[in-house]
Amino acid sequence: MASSTIYEATCSAPVNIAVIKYWGKRDTSLILPTNDSLSVTLDQDHLRSVTTARADPSFSSPPERLWLNGVEEEIKSQGRMRTCIDEMRKLRKGLEDKDDKLPKLSTYGLRICSENNFPTAAGLASSASGFAALIYTLASLYELQPAVSTSHLSRIARQGSGSACRSLFGGFVAWQGGETTDGSDSLAVEVAPQEHWSELQALICVVSDAKKGTPSTAGMQRTVATSPLLQHRIREVVPARMKDISQAIKARDFNRFAEITMADSNNFHATCLDTSPPIFYMNDVSRAIVQLVEEVNRASEEAGKGKIVAYTYDAGPNAVLYAPKENVSLVLGLIRHYFPNADFDDTFNLLSSGANASHRGANQPASPLPTQEQGLPAGFNSAVIPVHEAGAVRRLIHTQVGDGPRLLARGGADDEVGLLNAEGEPKRLQRSKRA
Amino acid sequence: MASSTIYEATCSAPVNIAVIKYWGKRDTSLILPTNDSLSVTLDQDHLRSVTTARADPSFSSPPERLWLNGVEEEIKSQGRMRTCIDEMRKLRKGLEDKDDKLPKLSTYGLRICSENNFPTAAGLASSASGFAALIYTLASLYELQPAVSTSHLSRIARQGSGSACRSLFGGFVAWQGGETTDGSDSLAVEVAPQEHWSELQALICVVSDAKKGTPSTAGMQRTVATSPLLQHRIREVVPARMKDISQAIKARDFNRFAEITMADSNNFHATCLDTSPPIFYMNDVSRAIVQLVEEVNRASEEAGKGKIVAYTYDAGPNAVLYAPKENVSLVLGLIRHYFPNADFDDTFNLLSSGANASHRGANQPASPLPTQEQGLPAGFNSAVIPVHEAGAVRRLIHTQVGDGPRLLARGGADDEVGLLNAEGEPKRLQRSKRA
């Protein structure tokens, strides 16, 4: 049973979606990337991983146990999880050695329980938010901050899952690839905080896909090994774009931000196609969304206005659309017209209650095309893509730029927030199956 | 009416399909490419353009008339057709100036009639074979050869349609991009004749596509203007591949030929995707064919054998599959299994008469998967792609490496072959409409 004092922390961490893509490792065990990358942190109120970690001397054999979405996972030696836990213990040990009034948590066993609030069905990678939540929770449990900087923590999260290092900050985050062989300079830094450009919102279009694509871990190394174009991307394309998009973000220049974001998404998928054998992540629905976005932007610019929206695609068919708050209703209207019957998380209550009532994929006719009164540019060619079959886009998630990891609770298993019960077991088991 | 002696020639020219792709012009009026390219000439017995040209002093006002597939076309001043005709007249004039016994054909009016034996529905570009047939026919009418070399003629065909220069030779043909600003060194040369590797065959898979993609003339210049990756392709990727594939062809090394052909097709489409806005030519069916080819090659190599087949895609969704003669039945069986009900031109009578009877797109069930006895590699994963809906591949055309342009007939409107009647008008009008 647990000792009198309960050493426990529960934290949440956000998802991030890159606008300058990470693709390729120069060191696969330390997870050192072949190029810098830059991402937007999304709001934890909508998408998050929550982790509870408890340290207790009574926890032993094994000294650590881990549950992900209610399913216990083995912590493999030599594994990434192992590395992260050991590194965090080491940092705690360092503090204990300096101050012997500190309880020797580094010697205690650990119970770790983590859950995502988004089902895998959302088609979103959970490793970034998951490892960020793990590292931030252990840092809170071990009270490492401020002694240990967040960028230092990001170095450890990086070794769990590369892009996890970017989820340790809110707002706009750069992962500096670094040059050293030990990875000491491969870490995340804040480019701009959430508040700097809080009007930036995101609409995630979850695209139905028959078969699972190439896993990114395997795919990116195949690209490194076989794509002649990737080397040019690494040497020439990305360094220039990192500078340019950082400036665009600092200037809140959506037009430039959109231009670079779309170009880099296409550049990344071009290197996947240039891989042997080629890797395909975007499908015909992904491409139709690209064509829709390009057309509404073209019409808007032709009307002397700026771009309306930007697309970006990770290692899958889903589109993440970034747009300033004032454009999202139009973008949503366009997506719902051309891609009927998507389940829609109307988190910002954009739809009239009437529409709201029927927005959960019920088999209603396609929503009407937005009108010019609703902001559709006059020159928009409505025949740019056909109205797709119901469910071609399965689900829409509307969110916005968000903050970094949050401490939700300390201590007591009595609190509502913690995921572990008094015995140090998950309050909810098998949740993943029910999701 | 026509003068006593009839000056007329009728010639045919082949289609060519590039294995190192031409994409981008350094001079759009002279049609000078940004990189070298290399193609395989396909057999005129299956796919060809036929042109009849007649010169007669009675032809005037206008001095030239032109019919394409039975439809009269205006010859625009400053147009590409205009350039080609003027250049050919100039060459004839040169001979007449040297030898005044020659009739002054360069001063006569012209009637030109051209037809393709493949409907546009085949989804094959006809400009290459069309301009090659035009140039070769005028060269025959004007009796320019041997005084004028075929490579010289290819320089003129190039100004009609870039890839047309490659259709002036049979077998394996390189278009040397050249460096001069006047284009004098931008011409086609034979890498190896048809007889050198006559076992190489092609299966063209015509893929249904909802909407027409970006026209290549506009698309390639958008890529030149916006794709950072294209510059790397031009400077680094293509020059090395031109050398390598020429060696592979000389050595009849299908494995290497296939490897480079597939890599360059993917590299070309990668630069299209890297264009802003991105250009998409391949669709989900195109990609499924890629995955099928990669899987059967993987399984064959795993079994210690070489590659079975290679794919290449031009500016559209159609796949052109190259394979040694002995592999084509297997490839055909695979395509017909996963893509049922394609119309099939069984030019080599590969199918049993029974299958033959029902091969014209009748709605029969998918053909069975080829067996290991039929050459399917043991390790082949039959779940690599799903069996597609009937007609996803609309049509299959089986052909082989072929020879260069042919002179079919001279003189007399009485001959069966010529396309013009005694009055110098097309024997068949509006054929394109009936095709």
Question: How do you describe this structure in short?
Answer:
The structure is a homodimer of 435-residue chains. By secondary structure, chain A is α+β, with helices and mostly antiparallel strands.
Care to describe what's here?
The radius of gyration of chain A is 22 Å and the shape is globular. In chain A, 32% of the residues lie in helices and 21% in strands. In chain A, the strands form four sheets. A six-stranded mixed beta sheet of chain A has the order 8-7-9-6-1-17, with helices on one face. The first copy, chain A, is built from ten helices and 17 strands. In chain A, 52% of the residues are buried. With 435 residues, chain A is α+β, with helices and mostly antiparallel strands. The first copy, chain A, has two domains: 194 residues, Ribosomal Protein S5, domain 2, CATH 3.30.230; 201 residues, Alpha-Beta Plaits. In chain A, strand 7 and strand 8 form a beta hairpin. The two termini of chain A are 31 Å apart.
